[in-house]
UniProtKB/TrEMBL annotation:
<comment type="pathway">
    <text>Cofactor biosynthesis; thiamine diphosphate biosynthesis.</text>
</comment>
<dbReference type="GO" id="GO:0050334">
    <property type="term" value="F:thiaminase activity"/>
</dbReference>
<comment type="function">
    <text>Catalyzes an amino-pyrimidine hydrolysis reaction at the C5' of the pyrimidine moiety of thiamine compounds, a reaction that is part of a thiamine salvage pathway.</text>
</comment>
<dbReference type="InterPro" id="IPR027574">
    <property type="entry name" value="Thiaminase_II"/>
</dbReference>
<dbReference type="Pfam" id="PF03070">
    <property type="entry name" value="TENA_THI-4"/>
</dbReference>
<keyword id="KW-0378">Hydrolase</keyword>
<dbReference type="GO" id="GO:0005829">
    <property type="term" value="C:cytosol"/>
</dbReference>
<comment type="subunit">
    <text>Homotetramer.</text>
</comment>
<dbReference type="InterPro" id="IPR016084">
    <property type="entry name" value="Haem_Oase-like_multi-hlx"/>
</dbReference>
<comment type="similarity">
    <text>Belongs to the TenA family.</text>
</comment>
<protein>
    <recommendedName>
        <fullName>Aminopyrimidine aminohydrolase</fullName>
        <ecNumber>3.5.99.2</ecNumber>
    </recommendedName>
</protein>
<dbReference type="InterPro" id="IPR050967">
    <property type="entry name" value="Thiamine_Salvage_TenA"/>
</dbReference>
<dbReference type="GO" id="GO:0009229">
    <property type="term" value="P:thiamine diphosphate biosynthetic process"/>
</dbReference>
<dbReference type="GO" id="GO:0009228">
    <property type="term" value="P:thiamine biosynthetic process"/>
</dbReference>
<feature type="domain" description="Thiaminase-2/PQQC">
    <location>
        <begin position="9"/>
        <end position="214"/>
    </location>
</feature>
<keyword id="KW-0784">Thiamine biosynthesis</keyword>
<dbReference type="InterPro" id="IPR004305">
    <property type="entry name" value="Thiaminase-2/PQQC"/>
</dbReference>
Amino acid sequence: MKFSAYLRQKVEGSWQASFDHPFVTGVADGTLPLDAFQHYVLNDSYYLSVFAKVQALGAARATDMQTMSRMAFHAQGTYEAEMDLHRNFSVRLGISEEQKANFRPAPSAYNYANHLMAVAYTGTLGEIIAALLPCYWLYWEIGERYKGVQSPEPIYQDWINAYGGEWFGELVQEQINRLDALAELASEEEKRRMEQHFILSSDYEYSFWQMAYTLEQWPYAEHVAVAK
Ligand SMILES: Cc1ncc(C[n+]2csc(CCO)c2C)c(N)n1
């Protein structure tokens, strides 16, 4: 069995919980409150800026030019495609410059980003890909599930469309193949660490929906609002 297939079966429970999360089903059927989506967008912009940095650190860790160039391309893709999407959502959701300037990432977004950064600075390229892969792969599966679905909320429809396209499927498959190739060369010990990172990122993906849905904040966050 390929290492990617082995990892995929390990996270079946947590990915299923993500598919069934009211944030995800609420995007598709339009029942998600817009303030939860706004909380998601603000936190996701922060998350993506770290994600692109981790992809770039993966490029730096590569031992061949082809991999280095592809990882750098992916980092640029995150910056351009995802940031474009967010700029667009920010305008349509009426997120103000002041809101962005005063924004502090919620605990779950911050923890997830820190997990990726820790792997980027301490792990091998195989470990970095294993930590990044659930972000690609889980979103691709969500995009596949909701292909053809028409959400009553046009903003949500654009979000669904972003992850259902063929170009995105190719990027995901490229990273799955990279994971399998790196796993072939990895020791049992390194593969065990790759598995841990993949599982932890999958759990953080679930926490990210929950964070958005519950409008998660730091304790005492209201003091910041009062002080303004
Ligand atoms: C919490 C969170 N997880 C995954 C994604 C999706 N995503 C982020 S970067 C990237 C790779 C290519 O751009 C993908 C698929 C997201 N937006 N937010």
